[in-house]
Amino acid sequence: MLYKARQTNTSNILKIIFNFAQIVRSEANLGLYMTSKKATYTQCDALLRTIIVGNIITRLSLSAFLIWRLRQIRNVHNFGSDKWISIILFSIKIALSIPYFIFQRASTEYVPDVDLVGCFVDSFTPIPYGASGIAVEFLIDIFIPFRLVQILINANKNAAQVSTNIKSKRSLFTAVMYWNFLRLFVSFVFHSLAVLDMIYVLPEKLQVK
Fold first, then answer.
1. Does residue 105 contact residue 27 with C-beta atoms inside 8 Å?
2. What residues have CB less than 8 Å from 50, skipping those under 6 apart?
3. Residue-by-residue DSSP string for 174-208
């Protein structure tokens, strides 16, 4: 009972962290667009750092949540290898987040047409680290459903040979698995949007050069 409660609490904490990071990132983005007509470097840099921290925490908490969902399914074949693959992927994701944060640069840019000093964000330099991080997230998005499908197939095979009472529990298990697949689809869409952002930024910077 205590173990199950601890598992649920961990999932809920990760959800709260994800939602809080989304709020922080959105508020900082709004602040970036609402800076005064004469924005200072300190304002721009502080808002950019807040956005990046929110972005990193959002992505890490989402990846951690998906990995935790797989970890909750115990007593399955290859549980040990699942654990280590998850740890390695998540560690790589954390490692890539550090240079992604460090190489973010903000500056002020004067626009004479409207007599405005606005914030300019260098989104080009950190792209290799951001793209690598998203690639790891896609690997997690592929690895988790691959293992869930294997577990689901094995569970359904076993259910065909057991009592009706156990079969009803397996039906609930199947429903939970499908709910996890829906979450994974949402995660995939979330990461795809980040890729589209990079595709938009890259040609824009190449034209400037």
1. no
2. 24, 25, 28, 31
3. HHHHHHHHHHHHHHHHHHHHHHHHHHHHHHHHHHH
String of DSSP letters for 1-24: -HHHHHHHHHHHHHHHHHHHHHHH
| Average pLDDT of span 117-131 | 73
pLDDT of 74 > 70? The answer is no
Is the CA virtual torsion 87, 141, 196, 189 positive or negative?
A: negative
Q: What is the pLDDT of residue 5?
A: 47
The pLDDT tens digits for 178-192 are 556 666 677 667 667
The band of 91, judged by pLDDT with boundaries at 50, 70 and 90, is very high
State percent of the chain over pLDDT 90. Answer: 5
Domains of the chain by residue range: 2-208
Widest CA span in the chain? 77
C-alpha torsion angle, residues 39, 41, 42, 48 (rounded to 10)? 90
